[in-house]
Amino acid sequence: MRPTDHLRSLAADDWQAATRHGFTDALADGSLPKDRMLTYLQQDYLFVEGFVRLLASAIAHAPSLPDAIPAAQFLGLISGPENTYFLRAIDTLGGDPDTPAPAAPVTAEFQALMARAAGSGRYEQMLAVLVVAEWSYLDWASPHAGKAAGLPFWFGEWITLHSGAGFESVVAYLRDQLDTAWQDLDDTARRAVEDTFRQGVALERRFFDAALAGFGAA
Ligand SMILES: Cc1ncc(CO)c(N)n1
Known about the structure:
- This protein is mainly alpha-helical.
- It is built from ten helices and no strands.
């Protein structure tokens, strides 16, 4: 079994809950209330700030230039089309993209997990969080890809950004990096990757739980 399949199997319950979630189902059928989408995107924009720093750290720790290039290209996508999606969608849904929301508890926990991984100096720790984040998003979004064109852009583009051949190749690359790094890890480092991976999947689930509930907002 590939190491990344092993890792996902350790978190199977949370994985299933995070990738077949009422929040993403409602988003994909267009029934998610706009204020819920706005609050989600405001929290997720805080997530993305930490994610960009984490991805930059992984680029810095990749073993070679060929190992780094796909991540660097993905960083360009997040800093470009994904960033402008956030700005347009938050603005259209009635928020102010220039005023960051206060982080909800689950968002703060995610930021802390990403900051720990980014600061660990351990490539496999960075990859563990990156693989969870991108693979779980590919998994929830792919079954909905055919509906994206018929949805308002704040729903449809969010699905399109996380499905299709380009995004599949990002996930394939990240998984391959982690599968390869795993081979050289001792048991202690492998257990640490398992731990981080599990924490990441649990946070993905809780992030969607909180988003569906409006992050505790009235
Ligand atoms: C919480 C969360 N996880 C993963 C992704 C995908 O990058 C995202 N945008 N937000």
